[in-house]
Amino acid sequence: MAVRLAESGAKVTLGSREAERAIGVAGEVRARWGELALDILGSDNVGAAGADVVILATPWDSAIATLKPLREVLAGKVVISMANALIKEGREMLPLIPPRGSVAAAVQAALPDSLVAAAFHHLPAGEMENLESGLEADVLVCSDHPEASVVTESLIEVMRGLRPLNAGTLSQASAIEAFTAVCITLNIRYRAHSTLRMIGI
Amino acid sequence: MAVRLAESGAKVTLGSREAERAIGVAGEVRARWGELALDILGSDNVGAAGADVVILATPWDSAIATLKPLREVLAGKVVISMANALIKEGREMLPLIPPRGSVAAAVQAALPDSLVAAAFHHLPAGEMENLESGLEADVLVCSDHPEASVVTESLIEVMRGLRPLNAGTLSQASAIEAFTAVCITLNIRYRAHSTLRMIGI
């Protein structure tokens, strides 16, 4: 996410509980794509939460614990949830149903003063971090705040290889998140790095 | 479904509680595509259930009531569930979670002696019934019986415009069915007849 966002012209701050760790990763990413002079820095979570738009990219079961202390600094901001609650069973990933139906709905409940959107669920990580992968994927966006959808779509619009599609309200997040299990299961079965396209739109 | 199946060379029997109704619809479909001489007949449900492979294409809330009386005639057969439990709310479709997680799981529970597969959830009906529509769509198939997946995939393989993808066990049906709500919501928002493609497989 950081690589493709920064390549599109965004100034990116990686957050971590330990600032040192985020600073180290940011340095590695800058070095890998040195010729692009990507604007990626590292910080603790409070520093990262100071950005105009905040993307929650923790594992799903750390999402709420990570966000709760940041409620005030995130008030009024667009927060994008990309987590999926999944569990592995044999050669398949299966979706779990979080107490509010989706991770994104739980994030919105934990951050009632923020404008939560859900997006970026179905993207293969390996293709995302390789800018030369030729990735072409649709990104489904949903939110209860039209402004958050617009901001999220505008970020995606300029990211290489991605097309935003507005899928409606946060009620859609449960199905969007759960479908990630199907995408990963297909990738396991077909040894692929597949991406989702909605043909005809 | 009947048109594309028959066009691929299958002999199709439409079922209905009232045989007259199925016979009438079969006649209309044959007449529309007269030059193809499609092999589509009508029958009551018991007659339709006599086929080698049975596709359950009722609304989701009629699925179990339709199947229960057919348990014995369907024993040992591949039964394909294509229903999605959805509800309209404003300009969106939302997924409901059936008591067993998916319609397909409920169908398998109602027909313990049948080999239930789930497939055909995300296809736009208007494009399906028009053989000249240029439809190109992936069809996700899942089942707890590998034989049922193989049979279902082999049907899809020869249907014009469709590609089968094996998505694993019936545990995947909940996410596959629910994602239909996202597809329809996108179609409403974008006034489209979109189809799903998994690029990279």
Name a few traits of the molecule:
8 helices, alpha/beta, 201 residues, homodimer, 10 strands, two-stranded parallel ribbon, globular, 36% helix
- Strand arrangement in the largest pleated sheet of chain A: 3-4-7-8-9
Mean pLDDT of chain A: 96
**Topology pattern of chain A, helix = H, strand = E:** HEHEHEHEEEHEHEHEHE
Shape of chain A: globular
Strand content of chain A: 15-25%
* Residues in helices of chain A, as a percent range: 25-40%
- Multimeric state of these chains? homodimer
Major sheet attributes of chain A: 5 strands, mixed
How many strands appear in the DSSP assignment of chain A?
10
Short description:
Two copies of one chain form a homodimer. Chain A is an alpha/beta fold and 201 residues long. Chain A is 36% helix and 23% strand.
Give a written overview of the molecule.
The structure is a homodimer of 201-residue chains. Chain A is of the alpha/beta class and 201 residues long. Chain A contains 8 helices and 10 strands. In chain A, the strands form 3 sheets. The first copy, chain A, has a 5-stranded mixed beta sheet with strand order 3-4-7-8-9. In chain A, strands 1-2 form a two-stranded parallel sheet. The longest helix of chain A is centred in the last third of the chain and has 18 residues. The first copy, chain A, is globular and about 35 Å long. The model of chain A has no long low-confidence stretch (mean pLDDT 96). Strand 10 of chain A pairs antiparallel with strand 10 of chain B.
